[in-house]
Every structure is written in structure tokens, then in C-alpha cells.
Fold these 2 entries.
Entry 1:
Amino acid sequence: MTGASNRYPTRDLQARDAAHHIHPFTDTGALNREGPRIITSADGAWLTDSDGKRYLDGMAGLWCCQVGHGRQEIADAVHRQMCELEYYNTFFKTSHPPAVALAEKLAELTPPQFNRVFFTSSGSEANDTVFRMVRAYWDKMGQPEKKTIIGRWNGYHGSTLAGTSLGGMKGMHEQGDLPVPGVHHIAQPYWFGEGGDMSEEEFGLWAARELERAIDEIGEDKVAAFIAEPIQGAGGVIIPPQSYWPEVSRICKERGILLVVDEVICGFGRLGTWFGSDYYGLEPDLMPIAKGLSSGYLPIGGVMVSDRVASVFIDQAGDFHHGFTYSGHPACCAAALANLEIMQREKLVERVADDIGPYLQAKWTGLADHPLVGEARMVGLVGALELVPAKGDRSRAFEPAGDVGTLCRDLSFDNGLVMRAVRDSMIISPPLVLTHEEADLLVERTAKTLDDTYAVLKRDGRL
Ligand code: PMP
């Protein structure tokens, strides 16, 4: 028994959790029978649980902890801000220094068309803001019939009504009779799973042109915007073929619809550029952000608003009837500013592009040699492994989908590595401060986890 386990008695915490806590995206009955693991502390790329076991945090929390855990500097900045002005709102002709400083910093870091931000507390709220802002924009432009927003199947934009609706997760839509009216979904650029006989490039063009077909079907005068993640995260780290984004960009420009690029995961260095839009050369009109903005130290998100959109709101009189109690929360802004200061000082984005990114990618893609792995892919520091029953045959998947991924995820935890399973893809998105030794360990533990998974499947006659 360690000191930590005495301070945090695992069974007792699990029982109290089961009695009173409903977890996100969880089968509560099943979890209550098993009991959650209790994470009690974290440092750098490492987590410690209530039994003293250490895990390499291959997911940077929930894709968010860019600068690693346990940065005293961020805690100190928040403490100072809390002592000076713990909270005030930004409604009613009011602002405060941390909101001003963060807005200015974001204008500096984001692509040149962005000079303004609308603050929220999360990525979901950012996408709710997008939903209302897009429609308000077209109203102000005198084209109120331009209402439909096009998203993609298996895209993820959050869990609120608008976020769930814009996203294309069918399981989420089924709960709560969503999407709301005025949202249309098109195919995702998921070549490995859905590319059939097409080459990657052909499939990328086909998937992009689904947007054009949808615009023709709905009517250009009725379509307001297209929303997408540069690389789909929660959908399974789906890296689009190279042909995809240039074609989507062309279509959005030619057809006069707004392009909304959801940077909640890809933003803040994940791809080795400040934003996914920089990586793919995109020119979005709106850009939801969250997660890496504060490395998750405190909840904060926002929507970057391009001059094209902002000018319409600024030039025309009248309120935008939208906002949150915590829009621009001073302590959250202070956390974000301290986080961005670390990212710039330690050149973490450059590090992902030139150093730890290529280092981990080389080792990660080597896992494609494993008999369970159909594809190993990674950009920057976000990657996936496709687990398959028949290597070399993309048409065959495990049935029922998700069981093998869950098995592999649980074995990964046993091996001291946090990986996430999306269906039967294994996902990693580690902190940007990952060291070379930690990258070696991450790949070693992944390889062992694949071997363990393979052994269980063989034993059970599933391979
Ligand atoms: N957009 C994307 C691309 C996301 O990945 C997420 C969260 N994983 C969200 C939006 C929602 O963010 P939040 O959970 O902060 O509401």
C-alpha cells in the first residue's frame, strides 16, 4: 500500500462515486458494478491512481493537455488572478484585463483573417455559438433563407443540442430526437473504412464533392455553412486524403457558404502547426477553439470570428443576443494566457513539427507490421491504429464492432498506458511535451498491448 492509497481509499471512493455520480458517455450501471479507476495526481505525461499505479497519459487527458500536467506556473497565474478579480462578467459594456489580453493573444496566433474572439467555456458552447452566429450573419446579410448547416457523418462537435446536431454521431442523435431541423450530413473522408475500391486521392475528391452535391440538392440559396474538423478526432483520428481539403475549400468559396473549421482538437499545436487550418492551408470564416487553449487547466473555449463575419455584426446596429455567464472568465483567461506563454517559450508547436512529432510518427507507423494492425497513421502528435481480423483486407472488420477495441483499451490500461478506443481503432494524442524516452515507452507498451490483445483473440478462437 502506498501513501496515496491511504489518503484515497479506492473502494470507498468507488462506492461513493457509484452512489452519487453520473459519468459522461458511460453505461452507469455497468460502471457502478466495476468501479471507476480513481486518478489522484498527475505530472508531465504521467497519471497516478489511488492505488499508486502510474500510467503514461497517451491521450493528454481528453486531447487537451498540451503542456503536460502539473505546471505550477499555470496554478500560480490562476491564483494571482483569483486574488485580484476572481470573477466578473463581460456583458453590459464591461471587460477586464485577462479577457482583453487573451483576445489580443489569440488574434496574434490565429490565421490573419481572425482578429476577434467570442469566449465560451467549452467546445460545445463554441459550436452552439457558431450555430447561432452563422444564421444571424445571413439574416444580417439579407439572406435569411440561408439556414442549413452541412456537417459530416461521424464528425464530432460537442454534446449540447447544436453540437450533437452538427456532429454526425448516430448514437447521439438517437437520444433526444436530433439533429434539430436545418442540419444536413454528408459522407466523411474515411478512406480506410469506406473507400471501397477507390484510391485515396479519388476517394478524397469523391467525399469533398459530396458537399457540392448536397448544396445542389438543398439549393445554394438555402445553405449557410459547412462545418468540419481538419482531422476528425473523436470519430477515430480520420486523416483525410490529400485531395480532400483543397476541393472542399474550392467548393465553399465558389458556392458562397461559410467555412467553419472546428479546431477544438487540432488547434494549439496538435498537428505541428498552431492550427489545423495552417496545416491544411484552409481559410475558415469561423473557428471554434477549446481544449489546448488552456491545456485543460480550467474550462475555456471560444469562436474565432473572421473579419468577414465580424464586420457585419459590427457595422450593423443591434445586439447579438447570445452569451454565457462565464464568457471570458478572468481565472480561465489567466490559465489560457499562462498556457500559451509556456507553449511559445518552450516552442512546443515547433517541437511537434520538427522533433517529437517525426520521432513518434516513425515508431508508431512501424506498428503497422503487427498482425492485428491494418493501418497505423499519425500527423503531428495524433494517431490511430486500425485493428483488423484480416490484415490487407480493408473490407473486413471485427464483429460486433467495438469489442476488440474495448478489450485492447482495457489491456492498455493494465500495461500502464492510456489509449482510447473508437470502435476498433486505437487512438493516441499525447501531451506535446512528451520526451523521446516516453515516446519509446509509449510505443513499447502499445506493442505489448497489441500482443496481449492478439493472444486473447487467438485463445478465444476469434482469429
Ligand atoms: N469539437 C470537437 C472537434 C471536439 O473534439 C470536442 C470534444 N472532444 C468538442 C467540439 C466539444 O468540446 P467540449 O467537450 O469542450 O464541449
Entry 2:
Amino acid sequence: SSAVEVIAAKRDRHELTPGQIEGVLGAYTRGEVAEEQMAALAMAILLNGMTAAETAHWTQAMIGSGEVLDLGDVGRPLVDKHSTGGVGDKITLPLAPLVAACGAAVPQLSGRGLGHTGGTLDKLEAIPGWRASLSTDEIRTQLAEVGAVVCATTPTLAPADRRLYALRDVTGTVESVPLIASSIMSKKLAEGTGGLVLDVKVGSGAFMKTRERAGELAGAMTAIGAAHGLPTTALLTGMSRPLGRCVGNALEVAESVEVLRGGGPGDVVALTVTLAREMLALAGITGTDPAAVLASGAAYDVWERMIAAQGGDPAAPLPVARHVETLTADRSGIFAGADALAVGTAAWRLGAGRARKEDPVQAAAGVRMLAVPGDEVRAGDPLLELHTDTPERLPGARQLLTATALPVAAGPPVFEELV
Ligand code: URA
């Protein structure tokens, strides 16, 4: 079928055949389908959906637009994790070395932040000398020798996804469950992992604002995993409050190091250990308790080797913001917590994130929370710190947080359920 016929078929709610899907995505990859045609098809898919079979074929065609990484035999079971993105979600940083310290190999190919959610690569680039881009040979060697790699996706992995995602971003077609699920899963399947744990975020700071939508996305992704023979499990976890106390690149690295040294915020430790258990189960590693391994310092040792293997100096001081402003409580009461979307947007505006793909990020910018939900605070107590190198950004962030994230009332604390 021609591209126009495929667009019309989806417009008229027909199920696309494997041939139509392979044909249109293959032609798009070769530059024979115009961007406006793919945009029309993406909108038809957003409005009319795709069946599980269509979504599996769509994913296969995206994988086929590039190469599948051959990680070969690294001597340990391969397992990876993907988070759909949240505020303060630095879990990959302690998790990858922890799971490696337990005996698996973690090929965590990651992305950068866009919008209010941070990117793992942006965070690690706050470490002096650390390098995100590795060759396939370097990835393989590091997996065998260290057990964990966090690096940029190589340009050869699912290249059709890169173009399609950029196109969806400017055509209002990001929010389609089959398109999100196939985008994420095509990259993970092309990476060559042996198992995958999905952390699907739910709440104000997440892509999916409700349990129902998050469950739909989780179901679509696990179905793609099953169709491709990749053992995949999914957890839905809360994202109406930021994870931990810190949001921002260097701030989140520092908090992750605290966790790796046996401290850090309880919610970050709990989610790290829970996801590690899921990953170890998929990797077939039993009888190793990740909580004990974390407490032993073995995960921190892997962290140091993982950072050093990519040119970073794990002992170097992290960048510090030139301007720090403290927001205080305007009355006494209970701190109900800061809304994830508000904190994420404030950190982004302070310089931790980017507005366009080409923009640089500030390593030191972000938000640190000095109180946690349920804390009793008195008028004038410090609640939040705003960090930035560009002080002209402070008023905007201050306004955003004062308006939405300082609900200090005398009522009962709001506790967040972690699912
Ligand atoms: N993340 C992705 O990688 N793809 C999407 O479509 C959405 C989020």
C-alpha cells in the first residue's frame, strides 16, 4: 500500500496489516514517506489506537530500522530497567551498580531530559570528566568487567524512533499508548537486554496522571515484551511527589551517592531495593538480598568503577550553584509536600532542564527539599532551596513553588502510597 492508503486505513479504523506497517516505516526510514504523511498517520493512530498485534509489528519495524546490539557473552545475565520518567527519579544511578554488585550485568542505555522530567545522562554529566557516548565494544567490555553501563543510546538503535519521536513532539501526538509503548520497547529490545523491569510512574509529575492510564501503558509494554520473547515485568509507582529530597543534576548525583553509601532518603532506598529485587528475579539470581548488598558498600564500589570506566572522577567535588535562595514556611503546621510537577517545572526553569533539544543544562541547578511530607514546621522554617547559576530565573521558580508547593496547613499530613 502507499503511505496515503495506510493513513486512510487507520483513519477509517481498519487494523493495519504487518505488510502495511513494515512498508510505511521502512519507507519512512529511507526518506520516502514525507514527515507530514507520518504526522497524519501518528494522529490517526493517536485517535483510533492500534491492536496488540499492530503494536507488536510496529515495534518490530522500528527495531528493524536500525541494528540490534550484540552484547555477546558478558559472562553474567543481562537485565535492565526503564522508568517512564518522573521528578527526582535518579533511581538508575544507585540501581545499576547495585544490581551489578549482586551478579547481573546492566546495559542501561539512557536518554536526556526534555521538559520537566530529568534525564539520566544529564545527571551523570554533572560528574567531572564523565562521558556518555560509548562504542558497542566499550559497552561490552565494561559490562564484562564492571557489570554496569549507563550511557547514551547509540545512533544505530531504532533510528526511526528518534525521528518519529521528534515529529510527535511537535504534532501533539506524544500521548498515544501504542506509540509510547512501541517507542520505549523498540529501544530496549534493540539494546539486547535479557530481561526488563518497567517502572511506570503515576501522578502529577508523570506522563500518565492516573492509575488507569498507567496500567494501560504498562499492559501495552509487557505485551510487546511477551510478543518478542523478552521477559518483562512492570510496577506502577507514585509520582505526585518528587522522589527523594533533591531535583536537579548534580544534586541528584549527590543524593544517589548518599544512598550508595548506606544513607539517603527512605523512598529512594525503598524503590531502588524493590526494583533490584525484580531485576534479580528476572536475571535468575536468587539468594542475594539487595538491601544487604547496598548496606555492605559493595554497590558503592561498583559505582566508583562504573564512573571511572567512563572517564569520570567519582571523588571530584560536584558543581555548586552560584545562587541559592531558601523559601520558608509562611505559617506553622504540617508540611503536606511539594507537588512533583511544580518542583520539576521549577527545577527545569532554574536551568536543570532544557526547552529545546539543543540547549545546554546547568549541572548545579535544581531544587532541594528541606522538609518531607508530614514534618511539623513553624512559620519561618526553611522548606525549599532553589539552586541556579542564573539568578534572573529565581523569581519565576519562586512564584511557581509559592503558588503550588508550599501547602502548610494544620490538617493531617498527606502520605503518598508507593505502589
Ligand atoms: N519516551 C520514549 O522513549 N518514547 C515516547 O514515546 C515517550 C517517552
